[in-house]
Structures are given as structure tokens and as C-alpha cells.
Design a protein that fits this description.
5-stranded antiparallel sheet, Imm53, 29% helix, alpha+beta, 103 residues, globular, Gyrase A, domain 2, Immunity protein 53
Length: 103
């Protein structure tokens, strides 16, 4: 499945009229250049699920670091690593049974 379709399905499954007013998904840029992804885990099936930090350092432009801190998935990476960051999150969410199939 397409990574964006999976992320959209995950987000949609949490939009219940309440969750999206306090929590959500933030994708931003870094100045080195690169990406920052933050996904709130509060009131989701992923809250409290063990996550093994992942760090990949292939080059100055090809890297990523993903972790969970204070009920938030945090992913950072090089300018061409956004898809890989999202794949790390979704791989963890899928393994936990927390990603619904898009309709």
C-alpha cells in the first residue's frame, strides 16, 4: 500500500471529533536540510507500545533517526528520507495492529 494512503488511514481512524482537536501529525522541514515528523500517540493504540529507536547514517544527506518520546513518535531525516521516516512509523504501527485499511 502507498505510504501516504496508510498514513491517511491511520489519521482518519483517530478523527473522532475530539482527538484531532488536541493531537495530530506534523510534518515540517529542518534547516540542514531535512524533515521532521511528529505523530501524537495519546489516545491511540500505540501509546505504551514498545518502539525500538532507529538510527541510520548513510551520508550527510541520507540519514534518519526515529524514536518515541513523551507519547510522541519523532522522526528526523535527510531531505530525501521523508518516505523512509513514514515507513518506520507505519511498520511499527502495522506490527502493532494499529493501521486500518483505507476505504
Amino acid at each position: 500500500m502507498d505510504v501516504l494512503a496508510e498514513l491517511q488511514a491511520w489519521m482518519a481512524s483517530h478523527c473522532d471529533g475530539e482527538w484531532e482537536h488536541q493531537y495530530g501529525v506534523t510534518i515540517d522541514t529542518l534547516d540542514n536540510p531535512g524533515w521532521s515528523v511528529k505523530i501524537d500517540l495519546k489516545d491511540t493504540k500505540l501509546l505504551g507500545v514498545a518502539f525500538e529507536e532507529k538510527t541510520v547514517d548513510r551520508s550527510e544527506k541520507d540519514w534518519l533517526a526515529c524514536r518515541v518520546r513523551e507519547a510522541t513518535f519523532e522522526g528526523y531525516g535527510g531531505v530525501f528520507n521523508l518516505r523512509e521516516i513514514l515507513e518506520v512509523f507505519l511498520g511499527w504501527a502495522n506490527a502493532s495492529g494499529a493501521v486500518p485499511r483505507p476505504t
